[in-house]
Design brief:
The structure holds two protein chains of two kinds. Chain A is built from eight helices and nine strands. By secondary structure, chain A is of the alpha/beta class. The N and C termini of chain A lie far apart (52 Å). Chain A is elongated. Chain B has two domains: 4-82, no CATH class; 105-203, no CATH class. In chain B, 49% of the residues lie in helices and 5% in strands. Chain B has eleven helices and two strands. Chain B has a two-stranded antiparallel ribbon with strand order 1-2. The radius of gyration of chain B is 20 Å and the shape is globular. Classes of the chains: A alpha/beta, B mainly alpha.
């Protein structure tokens, strides 16, 4: 069966939408990823296979093809692990779209460990900004990235720790909310320095120039 | 960047683009990518290889050509993009040993924050946040000069041989100095101070 799920990728510092298409069909068992994946994306195969197995779900021993569309852009990074895993589970009916509201407006991002734990990824912010611009409703991301993503408004952020949790969330057995955004993150924490300008004797012009520089740039 | 002339010349010249555009464009076979590069460049250097050229007692023992080679590492166009040039003279013994209290960082911070707030308020809705981002159009509106300031700037232009780029940068610096003072309009003193930060290259580069 065929499944389609949404994810994001990065081109420089701009995010763009990637559709992960997964087809599981009869034939000799195989697992291929196409759509210009780099070595890190190709290696997702082993992480996905093992983490699904270690989440107590039998990995289908059938012919699996994953396409990352648009297929003409080079994909890099390890954040496709989670969407590929979910794509396979969807294709074999282990999870269903209709148990989660707005499934088609949900972005999946995350790197998997062999035991199913979801690790932090890089570039979450530009991807979330683009998701917000595209009108995406929800992002499912590694828990460690939740703080960073909380800056984005109008986007439901679901921080997850492992694959099992994501499966339960999609099935509707486990409601996850982002606590961090509710506590309101203050990234501008007051910084403390060990040095003070009053310790600099003389050099008034230098200090004045630094003051002017500080006053005019963001 | 400490010890600026010790960097490779090609490395330094590359800074010109991002200093002006606040972005870097990298072209490779399969993609052209633009990254934001909004930064503040702070650099320091010695006036010559031995470090004494230009001091009052002139202890420098470098040859003329060694000095030009050293100073020549920094090109005119790059220098032109640096808004505040200052000379840091050795501190006298009297100053180092004195117990006189200097201004605290927190006091300076207060002044800077106030100036920033003034800017944020002034540029509300214009999609810019600080004086450094002023476009020529906006500069006309927000950096108005009175007659005497105009005269001073004109004179400085003629005697110091300033570039068009320097003109805009002097105005922006003057605007910031006025903001630090909490003044709504740029006054004579502000423009004078701003010009003063532009005159160091007269002493070392255009000898």
């Amino acid at each position: 069966m065929l499944s389609k799920i949404k994810s994001m990728s990065l081109e420089g510092l701009n995010g763009y939408l990637v559709e992960i298409q997964t087809d599981v069909s009869g034939g000799l068992p195989s697992f291929d990823i196409v759509g210009l994946p780099d070595i890190r994306v190709k290696e997702a195969k082993e992480r996905v296979r093992t983490s699904i197995k270690n989440s107590e779900i039998e990995f289908p021993s059938r012919r699996i093809i994953v396409n990352l569309s648009p297929a003409d852009k080079r994909k890099e990074g390890t954040f496709f692990d989670l969407p590929i895993a979910i794509g396979i589970l969807l294709a074999i009916n282990e999870v269903r779209k209709d148990t989660l509201e707005d499934f088609d407006s949900t972005i999946f991002l995350g790197e998997l460990s062999l035991d199913g734990t979801i690790n932090r990824i890089n570039g979450i912010l530009p991807m979330c900004i683009e998701a917000q611009d595209l009108g995406i409703k929800r992002v499912i991301i590694p828990k460690e990235n939740a703080l960073e993503a909380s800056i984005i408004k109008n986007l439901e952020i679901i921080p997850v720790e492992n694959l099992k949790e994501v499966i339960e969330y999609i099935r509707g057995d486990n409601k996850i909310t982002n606590q961090i955004s509710e506590n309101c993150v203050n990234l501008r924490q007051k910084s403390l320095y060990n040095f003070d300008f009053s310790e600099v004797k003389g050099q008034e012009t230098a200090k004045r120039a630094l003051e002017i520089a500080a006053a005019r740039s963001t | 960047m400490d010890e600026l002339p010790e960097f490779k010349k090609s490395t330094l010249e590359v800074l010109r683009g991002p200093l002006e555009d606040r972005s870097v464009t990298i072209s490779r076979v399969n993609a052209t990518l633009t990254y934001p590069a909004n930064f503040m460049l702070i650099a320091s250097m010695n006036p010559c290889p031995c470090g004494f050229y230009g001091t009052d007692d002139n202890k420098c023992n470098c040859s003329e050509s060694a000095i030009s080679r050293y100073i020549g590492q920094i090109s005119g166009p790059l220098l032109d993009r640096i808004d505040l040039h200052i000379e840091v003279k050795p501190v006298e013994y009297k100053k180092i040993s004195s117990d006189e209290k200097e201004e605290l960082s927190s006091t300076i911070r207060k002044r800077v924050n106030k100036a920033r707030e003034i800017q944020l308020k002034r540029y509300e809705g214009l999609n810019i946040y600080s004086n450094s981002e002023l476009t020529p159009n906006l500069m006309e509106k927000f950096c108005k000069l009175d007659e005497s300031s105009k005269q001073i700037l004109k004179k400085a232009f003629e005697t110091l041989n300033l570039s068009g780029r320097a003109y805009g940068r002097i105005l922006k610096v003057a605007r910031s100095i006025a903001d630090l003072d909490g003044e709504e309009n740029i006054k004579k003193d502000h423009i004078l101070e701003a010009i003063q930060y532009r005159s160091l290259d007269r002493k070392y580069w255009k000898r």
